[in-house]
Design goal:
about 375 residues; alpha+beta; 8-stranded mixed β-sheet; 4-stranded mixed β-sheet; about 25% helix; about 25% strand; globular
Amino acid sequence: MARRAAGVVGVPVRPRLAWLFPDCSNHPAAAWGCGCPSLPKEGQSAANISNCLPKLLKDSGLRSSGNLDQPATTYHHAGNGHGMSLPGRALSVIGALRILETAFRTSFNEELFHWKVSRPGARLHLAEHATLTTLELPIPGMDAVTVYDWASTARGAGRDLYRQAIAGHTLISIGGTADSCRAKAKLGLQVVGSMYIYTRILRPRLARYVWDSVRGTRASGLPPRVQAEPVEQFGINDISGECVQCLWPQRTAEWVNSLLKCPVGSPRGFVLRNTQRALGYGVLMQFGQLCRIVDLRVASGDQADWDQAIAALVAVVERQPGTRMVRSAATCRSMASALTANGFWKGGRIRIYSKDALDVSNIHLTASDGDLLVL
């Protein structure tokens, strides 16, 4: 079993995912260990690690529903009933961090890791020599999950845990390292589509003009006729609505608000409105000179509404001092067309794997449907 896998925290910058990283040395997501408490030291016993757990659970909004002395314990995110299954002899959430640290020989942002495993719909699977996290993707008509933070320290342990974690689910696995892609092939997964990466340069103007000229895109994009209203927290009416053009994972206010609690990227939420009604919402994250559109929903079958939603978010980013570019990801045609109409150019792709025959081009997935938003 390859030790490195899709979306594992602490992995060095991969050229295939270079779109996710701005050209600056102080990227908070690239320097995983900065400003975080140290991991347990080598040789620290399981009992001592378990003693650290109550505070970590409290800090990350988790509560225990079992005894740490039992061979299996389940942790639930307070208020939503979603659990994290810890099978085998592993006795604490810290065990996952220890496996990741051993497999990748690097330090980790513990605060970020605990946020990731405590998201609504997230479930941490931990065996003695392997760990991974699944995240529910409640797409209508399928019981789908995605997988990230997959690593192991013993041959075959990661594949066994992977099979157990996805059993009975439709898997939609986004991206991965070269090692994890080879492991997915052994698991019988196939490429069923791609998540395409789009970029628009905002500053300096000369660079934007050159890129727009080479790519044949419009330098100014579209004049926004939709207003992006900043909010500290989303309500149920802000995220409700369906789109007849594509499928998408169903959202709850709790799920979207959890994005705003991410400890990196200074996330900001916006409700998108035109003169008649609320169209949807968007979430932006800032990493140095790069701004990412990490989540977007437009409850409309009119392509013009999608175009205007992107234009409204770009207008917000342009008012942010020091931001040189904005990036987003797209799988469905509506999102891709809206980005192109606003002067974005396609700069790369991330493969999507599954065992099932899926038309990914008809499913609206974003960077928030997994852990790409913080890589």
